[in-house]
């Protein structure tokens, strides 16, 4: 892809998702959708209860047809993982055994590292009701488990696949704090712009004797400036705020008629010397 | 909770999940389930199309009754967020505006930090078909968006809530690489145990003239030791492997009768000097 290509890239790579004896076509479809959302494409089914293909699966996949069309069915788990180099088993509870247990983050990082060196990997997900058997877990290299509410651990198969697929996607990002789009670059205004705003505001307020009594003026200016600089305004925002001050300033000087319906500005409303009174 | 209390803790805290004009009760139920899985509890609905309460929602919530029972319905989004200090809007695409856009990881960290200082927070999710309007997004402080496959971005509302709830849970963990349970501590065997294994194996092989021709013996031992130490065995594993060697070693010395059905060991099978021939 050219760096500036705006075409939407279809990601389709990464570990195989292997569902062991899935029961509901709808769940298989939701798994396919979750995979497609995060760029996975290779779905393998071991002995699906209601057979394959499945109209219910295709409907629930919500147009993830490339995943549904590529789905391969196997009679046994051994066949389903035969060509893979490294396999995770997902389990919700501790299994007696000597397999390392990993978090989804660690598992995704491991899968990404193996993917980059050309190893073929997969993740096993068990039956809706009963998960994976101990014998099935034993075929995997490591276990992955999800951090859930101890008193409410009820992840279904599509949710579990979604989380692993999401972590897979994140493992390929340079920075998990990054975002695919952002507001245009908004540098903070220069200090000249900020001070210009302060002086504009203070002049307009001074004309109304806002700074009263006079010996409090320095402290009041200090407070005002703190309020108006606690969040750094951008240049365009300074422009907007100065427009507001100019607009409020119009027609309202002593001796001029205030416009109909003019409401008190917030600064005036919180000040005990209300010039509109 | 006492540190050693094995009772399952019901997590029920954190940001409010606010669904704006959700259409399907089933989706609301799946949202409640996703929330409960990751310890969230406060669900707010703005003007749900099919009314509230909803039997379909309760059924889809898969026993997350504490979330369903506590759900509050509002007429407007403004009322639904009135008591909150900080609000995220979830959107799938760039909106013209000046709101910062955050990743789910950053958003969850921010929500966690505000939670710890006592601020009330919420996350807005839009309609199934059309998401949030620009006016609704404008009521939020910041935007959160999900890293998805550019050519297949089809997260539904329950999936989006699941991911944010999951990141919320992770933001409270000391280490996202941590796991809720793990295999018992498995220290690597001592070098004395490892060398004991090597010597045991080499002695048994030597008795069968495995190391042939003699001038290659040193190199063959080096290779064997590399194979048997690439992954660090634990003490109990060393015990198992030595048991295997002892068992294979039995009855098979020259002059002894091999047991019926004895298969070649892998090391023998890959060696050109097959003593069974």
UniProtKB/TrEMBL annotation, chains A, B:
Its EC number is 2.1.1.200. Its main location: cytoplasm. It comes from the Bacteria. CDD domains: SpoU-like_TrmJ (cd18093). One of its GO terms (molecular function) is tRNA (cytidine(32)-2'-O)-methyltransferase activity. Residues 16-166 form the tRNA/rRNA methyltransferase SpoU type domain. Keywords: Cytoplasm, Methyltransferase, S-adenosyl-L-methionine, Transferase, tRNA processing. Belongs to the class IV-like SAM-binding methyltransferase superfamily. RNA methyltransferase TrmH family. Catalyzes the formation of 2'O-methylated cytidine (Cm32) or 2'O-methylated uridine (Um32) at position 32 in tRNA. This is tRNA (cytidine/uridine-2'-O-)-methyltransferase TrmJ.
């Amino acid at each position: 892809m050219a760096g500036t290509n705006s075409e939407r890239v279809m990601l389709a790579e990464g570990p195989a998702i292997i569902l062991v004896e899935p029961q509901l076509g709808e769940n298989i479809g939701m798994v396919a959708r979750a995979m497609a959302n995060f760029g996975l494409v290779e779905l393998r089914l071991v002995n699906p209860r209601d057979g394959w293909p499945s109209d219910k699966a295709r409907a629930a996949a919500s147009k993830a047809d490339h995943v549904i069309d590529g789905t391969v069915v196997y009679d046994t788990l051994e066949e389903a993982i035969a060509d893979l180099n490294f396999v995770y088993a997902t389990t919700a509870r501790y299994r007696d055994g000597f397999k390392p247990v990993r978090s989804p983050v660690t598992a995704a990082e491991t899968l990404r590292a193996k993917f980059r060196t050309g190893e073929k990997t997969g993740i096993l997900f068990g039956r809706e009701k009963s998960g994976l058997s101990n014998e099935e877990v034993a075929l995997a290299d490591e276990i992955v488990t999800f951090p859930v509410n101890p008193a409410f651990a009820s992840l279904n198969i599509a949710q579990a696949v979604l989380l692993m697929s999401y972590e897979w996607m994140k493992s390929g990002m340079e920075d998990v704090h990054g975002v695919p789009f952002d507001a245009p670059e908004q540098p903070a205004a220069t200090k000249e712009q900020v001070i210009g705003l302060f002086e504009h505001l203070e002049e307009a307020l001074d004309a109304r004797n806002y700074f009263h009594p006079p010996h409090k003026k320095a402290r009041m200016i200090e407070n005002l400036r703190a309020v108006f600089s606690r969040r750094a305004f951008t240049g365009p925002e300074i422009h907007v705020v100065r427009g507001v001050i100019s607009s409020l300033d119009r027609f309202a000087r002593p001796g001029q008629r205030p416009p109909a319906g003019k409401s008190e500005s917030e600064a005036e409303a919180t000040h005990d010397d209300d010039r509109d009174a």
